[in-house]
Amino acid sequence: MRFFEYESRVVTAKVGIPVTRHGLAKTADEARRIAEQIGGPVVIKSQVLSGGRMKAGGVKFADTPDEAARHADQILDLEIGGHMPRGVLVDDRAPLRREYYAGVVWDGIRKLPVMLFSDMGGIDIEEVAQTHPDRVVRVHFSTLRPVSDWQAKQLITSLGISGSALNRLTPIVARLARLFLAYDMTLAEINPLGELQDGSFVALDAHMEMENEARRRQHALLHELGVGDEETRLAREPTAFELAGEQVDAQDHRGVAGNVTEFDGDLGLVIGAGGGSLTLFDAVRAHGGRPANYCEIGGNPSVRKACGLAKLVLEKPGVDKIAVMMSIVSNTRVDIVARGVIKACLELGYDPAEKIAIFRIPGAWEDEGFKILRRYGVQYADRTVSLHEAARRAVESIGQGPMRSSEAATADGAAA
Amino acid sequence: MSVEQVGPRAPADGLFIAVEVEEWAVRDRELAAKLAEVCPVDIYHAGARGIEVVREHLDECVLCELCLNAAPPGAIRVIKRYDGDAPLRA
Amino acid sequence: MSILIDEHTTFIVQGITGREAVNLVRECLDYGKGARIVAGVTPGRRGRDVHGVQVFDTVAQAIEHQGAQIDGSVVTVPPAFTKDAVFEALENGIRLVVIVTERIPRGDVAQMVELASERGARIIGPNCLGIIVPDVVKMGGIGGPARDAARSYTPGPVGVISRSGGMTTEMSSTLTAAGLGQSTAVSIGGDAIIGSTYAELMPLFEADPATDAIVIYTEPGGRMEAELARRVLETDSRLPIVAFMAGRFMDEMPGMSFGHAGTIVEGKEDTASEKVARLGEAGIVVAEEISEIPSLVQDRMASGTAV
């Protein structure tokens, strides 16, 4: 879950890392007032959850409060990466002597967090790492023992930094590493970390992301920042269809029948589980099919939830048929899913044999499941029919042929 | 939630599952309580007049036979409507 | 032969009284030669039993009851309690911990893995279904009830490693149908940080005389496929590897994650297409469909050369 810059600044300041004077403005007037309070040149920065703000014109400099208001007015209306800004940050434009970079990320291979530091701040760190690999230094640190200042000190000195800069940078980098662990971040970076003319340091921009799985235990911090439980902070806002999917899944605590993502095709998908859904979605597209949605069934959901999910997909405008497919199940039951999807068809007044393009879920309780499917005349397949073959049959049954695969390959990303 | 008392001639029907309770067992409140406890999907409800069946939950039946184990032989029938009305545990 | 576990492996189940754990115990006891589940642990439930397995309050009590060191533990407790349960297992000398629980924050997983490494122990998972040695033993819910597991898994020469529990079974079933059995199949888990990656399990399979080839299921997110590719290029493995990559569509949807928590793409190397390229450079063949895997494995085993 990504934080806005103004939220990341709060977190940064909270752990004692100096930040420039700034304020969040939602109107041009507010921006003017903040600029007056700061009383000098300011930077106006769009608050969007998207990179490339500078290139998109979302960051502008102002010498007077009036200019600040004019820029704010413009930026508040500027869409960046498909997002409208939540406000603008009006930030003191401090004259800098030098820009540094400090960051902390996870290393999934070493399975440890790693502190990164560079004396080439202000630009994308991945770029620096490629063009000037000797100017980015890094060190892994333990999650079991408390982060100690010497670890940051040793890292910073490896770039040849000494004197008062070293002594002022050390606690900043160590505090960043501590907050990374304390707040379950997956990314915490200050870029640029500016050295002012007087030799002191301030965070001029901060970017933080928190692990979704930790939202519950970080509730206090999220509450303090004003982040609501309903804010998903995904790359795009959830659609009404996706929110309805969440409601289906929330009906009871048995299993999963949800994780819905909307696409713009005509083949409805009721698929599972995690890996099976990824494989099947690819397979449908590989055969020229145009999925109307992505979703996941798993963990043995109730008939009611399977039914609710199937209904949601069947009722989506433009959906002609649904394909019900999973990798071999061992926990989820074939008969329970079969009941759910057939019930969905019947309750909507459809013939299951017509509406279900194919049912391919082999595994637990399949004999019982196949009895139900035969009773309603639904086309089904056992494990001798591969996931890709099942997907091919589903695509064929709604009249989408491999002929159209070239156009389908580009059309489907549209909902992204 | 629609609960109804059922007897042998008035089975409670879901789309896939039906339950029949013999007349001699239907007013047995002790049995009703036992059934309500063992059923993992809450098909049985212990009502003031004995065994009641929650119609909305019938199709959630997982064929676990726990109700059949808890009841005296022949007291309850769980019927698979999708399988030619075959009783669970013939 | 096998890796990680065999018929003699003793293990406990932490969180044994939970609904899913009760099923898991039944399945493991029934499968193959019958797992040696020597005890269960759920705090406050000492004295109960689950399918004949005695329940204790602590891991220490379970070991005392056993009168000998216990080899492994399957941990299936809610995410907020998992770290504590795994620490308890590790500090009581357990050397193989299978973590079933999903939605554990990465910081907790990193701590568990770090402690395991300090204690010389191994973690499989989190967010996994465990390990199966066909017809011999399974440790975890992998393959489901014994009867179902027996339909999908048969003994043979292929080692299977998968980030998806369900796809471990799908791939193994496909291999079985083609007459290719499995030496050991490991569901390694779908999270961003896991106890054992492909590259870390490779030396075990290389040392196992029963294994002649490896099949892996991979997804976008993380660098463990790149790690495997690097290992294959740098070491002289005797085992050919066939891979399958799911979630290719995610490359068109940056910032979104599907299927498993670990599919979140956090760097340029994490995408499906980058991974397919890395694996290819290392000579690892990437199947377009699951059904192609058996013939690709047979070809590579017949040619007798590792990738």
Ordered list of secondary-structure elements with their pairings:
The complex is a heterotrimer of chains A (416), B (90) and C (307).
Chain A: H1 5-14, E1 22-25, H2 28-38, E2 42-46, E3 59-62, H3 65-76, E4 88-92, E5 96-107, E6 112-118, H4 125-131, E7 136-140, H5 149-157, H6 163-182, E8 185-196, E9 201-203, E10 206-210, H7 219-225, H8 240-250, E11 256-262, E12 267-272, H9 274-286, E13 293-298, H10 303-314, E14 321-326, H11 334-347, H12 352-355, E15 356-360, H13 366-375, H14 387-397, H15 405-411
Parallel strand pairs in A: 12-14, 14-15
Antiparallel strand pairs in A: 1-4, 2-3, 2-4, 5-6, 5-8, 6-7, 8-9, 8-10, 11-13
Helix pairs in contact in A: 2-3, 5-6, 8-10, 9-14, 10-11, 11-13
Chain B: E1 3-5, E2 12-13, E3 17-21, H1 23-26, H2 29-38, E4 44-47, E5 50-54, H3 66-70, E6 76-80, E7 86-87
Antiparallel strand pairs in B: 1-5, 2-3, 3-6, 4-5, 6-7
Chain C: E1 10-14, H1 19-30, E2 36-41, E3 49-50, E4 53-56, H2 59-66, E5 72-75, H3 79-91, E6 96-99, H4 106-119, E7 122-124, E8 130-133, E9 137-139, H5 146-152, E10 155-162, H6 165-177, E11 182-187, H7 198-206, E12 213-218, H8 224-234, E13 241-245, H9 272-281, E14 285-287, H10 293-303
Helix pairs in contact in C: 3-4, 8-9
Globular, elongated, flat, extended or rod-shaped: what is the shape of chain B?
Answer: globular
Calculate Rg of chain B over CA atoms: 11 Å
Structural class by helix and strand composition of chain A:
alpha+beta
The structure class of chain B reads alpha+beta
Number of domains of chain A: 3
* Count of helix runs of chain A: 15
Termini distance of chain B? Answer: 30 Å
Task: Estimate the strand proportion of chain A.
Answer: 15-25%
Strand order across the largest sheet of chain B: 2-3-6-7
- CATH fold name of the largest domain in chain A, please? Rossmann fold
CATH-assigned homologous superfamily of the largest domain in chain A: Succinyl-CoA synthetase domains
Counted beta strands of chain A: 15
> Under the CATH scheme, which architecture of chain B would be assigned?
2-Layer Sandwich
Main sheet specs of chain A: 6 strands, antiparallel
Beta percentage of chain B is 25-35%
CATH topology descriptor of chain B: Alpha-Beta Plaits
Order of helices and strands of chain A: HEHEEHEEEHEHHEEEHHEEHEHEHHEHHH
What is the highest CATH level, the class of chain B?
Answer: Alpha Beta
Indicate the CATH class of the largest domain in chain A: Alpha Beta
